[in-house]
Amino acid sequence: MQLDLATVLLQWSTGGLLFCWVTTRRREVGPGYGWLLRGVFLVLAAGSVVAGRVTGDGTSELVRDLGAMGVVAGAAVALTQSITRRGGATRGVEFPPSLDLVAPVAGLVGLAAAASAAGGPYPLSVARVVIGALFLGAVTDAMLLGHWYLVQPGLDRAPIRQLVVLSTVIWPFEVAALLWPTGMAQVLDGTIEDGWDGLLGWTWAVSAATTIGLLVLTWLALGERSYSAVMAATGLLYLAILTAFGTDLVARAALAG
Question: How many domains does the structure of the chain reveal?
Fold first, then answer.
């Protein structure tokens, strides 16, 4: 595994834009939420391109960066079309949700190349970068959607519950992919020296356990009837983002090289 900024930003933007489509395709959430996500992840994907071109010089890195460029272009087109066609249902020019799939598909191509650049068994490397993208994207989108309830307070809780459930379902796959040999299991048992006397291994374990705990608490908070429960859930998701990144990035740091 490798820990490089270009791949992490591509993971984050790809996963975030995929779950943007998951949430917005039913048109339950106001269009501004989609604008927010497309804009945020477009910038992150652009950062991936810049970071990749500064540090990468191989064929795999080039394909990864071309994939990131595809994410930027796809998100930009979707954002432009969504803004241009807002309120267009009455004029027969409604925004097609499938347009939001262009960017994450391009991102998956880039991540497949990034997995090749990372080295190690290719199927395991692909699983790690793709599952990591889904994990980081789902948790981030859930937190951003929690904030959107301030703008659209009458919104049903089903969309945020869906993202919390998806994050929870992805969590065991993320942990399993990172534990799979050669992985964090070997860091935890001391077979692989992390350079910090085992600290990175335990930090990873605590991050992984805390993330699932926070997701469960978020689900329970959303079960409360008061509106403030959504804000409490959003606060928990803030913490979950930190621990989710700890789960993914600490493993990369421990296994790098």
Answer: 1
Q: 233: Cβ–Cβ under 8 A, 6 or more apart, which residues?
A: 146, 160, 164, 218, 221, 222
Q: Which value, to the nearest 10 degrees, does the dihedral of the CA atoms of residues 95, 30, 229, 205 take?
A: 40
pLDDT digits (tens, 9 = 90+) for 37-58: 999 999 999 999 999 998 877 8
32 vs 61: CA distance, rounded Å: 34
Q: Whole-angstrom Cα distance, residue 244 to residue 155?
A: 26
Residues in CB range of 210: below 8 A, 6 or more apart: 239, 243
What's phi and psi for 252, nearest 5 deg?
-65, -40
Residues 78-134 have pLDDT tens digits of 999 999 988 665 455 788 999 999 999 999 999 999 999 887 899 999 999 999 999
Query: Which residue segment(s) compose the domain that 136 sits in?
Result: 5-255
The pTM for the full model equals: 0.93
CATH number at residue 32: 1.20.1630
